[in-house]
Amino acid sequence: MRNGVIFGSFAAQPPALEAYLGETNLAYFDRVFDGRELRLLGYSRQLIPGNWKLMFENIKDPYHASLLHVFLVTFGLFRADQESQVQMDDSGRHALLISRRGEQRKSDATQDIANLREDFVLQDPRLLDPVKEFPDDATVVMQTIWPNLIVQQQSNTLALRQIRPRSPGTFELAWTFFGYADDDEAMTTRRLRQANLMSSAGLVSADDSEVIKLAQDGIDQYPEDHGIVVMGGVGTGNENHMVTETAIRAFYAHYREVMDL
Amino acid sequence: MTLDAGQQRALEDLYDRYGQALDDGPLDSWPALFTPECTYLVIPRDNFEQGLPLAIMRCESRAMLEDRVRSVQETIMHEPRYLRHQITNVRGTPRATGEIDVVANYVVIEVLPDELPKILSVGRYLDVVVAAEDGSLCFREKRVVYDSVLVPNTIVYPL
């Protein structure tokens, strides 16, 4: 247990959490779970027809967000040209995608996105009213913790997402939304409003579960075959930008090691 | 107090139009069934019963409903789908002040390409219905409390 979060393991001798996460991932874990009392806001669960690893691929692939999530791009919450980093622990099993939001405008990075809705102005802007609440400048930190946990900070939505595999072709994604006990009412309302972007009916994350289903539909057709699209290199190191699949490669390198493949 | 037959028919007509707007469109006509100041929440039953505030859709005005509609139409990447609302057991209790508290059951069936129909969501509507200036009924509050807490993949359209 660390700062209100309980971890369990079937291992006879589980490693200490601090050593398991490594220095960088532990620091970012403590950034959200800083010891303040947490306030549970609620749960949301969805059954996604895809292999569980596709969910990790999704979160560890940083630049899909700038291509797929028209809502995020339209409102400047995430773009590939933002100041960003991909950081992993020494084993590559955990990863952090760290980024800082931009503005709603066209740029070189968005002009290729044919469906950027530059004219989409919210009729009720209270939906997106993010405020800075952490000491650093990061507005998005997505942390993937091996083997099945995602710690999400997107603007003021804080959530844990647990991946629960049900079968090779299906997994449950269980969301736990929270804030802090010392949040004022305005902050709690802000978190609840921004939750519109997330989970099974999320203005953003619905894109992900829809795409995972389509990806699994494609994979299912060729069970005996392998397919890989290699983009931008073969390494597994940290990067100071988002246009990289390094965290996915590191994840699979670790997966193959654990599974003796 | 109970509704007379004409009031009951008018109430059920509102729910008929509600389902039609979402199933057959135009989707833009859906927010018009709400008052400008309104609440629309889609809440997993677990959260509702535990008093947890998280809703998977939260709209706090008709303008937010319009933003949700535009997102469905223009920004959310999703497979095409057909939806069909079945709204039953519409029971209204008028207050002395004129509003009607309404409880109704719903089932939404979803048809995706190359798949058999399935139940997307089942639950209750817990609503407050009021008369607009022209006398027509509309929603001031709508809470969609869904029993089917494990959502089959994605809910794109409002329930």
Short description:
By secondary structure, chain A is α+β, with helices and mostly antiparallel strands. Chain A has helices at 17-21, 23-32, 52-60, 64-68, 70-74, 185-194, 205-220, 246-258; strands spanning 38-48, 84-88, 95-99, 140-145, 149-154, 157-167, 170-180. Chain A has a seven-stranded antiparallel beta sheet, sandwiched between helices.
Describe the model.
The complex is a heterodimer of chains A (261) and B (159). Chain A is an alpha+beta fold. In chain A, 28% of the residues lie in helices and 21% in strands. Chain A contains eight helices and seven strands. Chain A has a seven-stranded antiparallel β-sheet with strand order 1-7-6-5-4-3-2, sandwiched between helices. In chain A, a hairpin with a 2-residue loop joins strand 6 (157-167) and strand 7 (170-180). The longest helix of chain A is centred in the last third of the chain and has 16 residues, at 205-220. Chain A is globular, with a radius of gyration of 18 Å. The model of chain A has no long low-confidence stretch (mean pLDDT 89). A six-stranded mixed β-sheet of chain B has the order 2-1-6-5-4-3. In chain B, a hairpin with a 5-residue loop joins strand 5 and strand 6 (137-146). Chain B is globular. Chain B starts with a helix and ends in a 7-residue tail after the last strand. Chain B contains three helices and seven strands. Chain B is α+β, with helices and mostly antiparallel strands. The mean pLDDT of chain B is 96. The longest helix of chain B has 19 residues, at 5-23. Chains A and B meet through strand 1, helix 5, helix 6 and helix 7 of A and helix 2, strand 2, helix 3 and strand 7 of B.
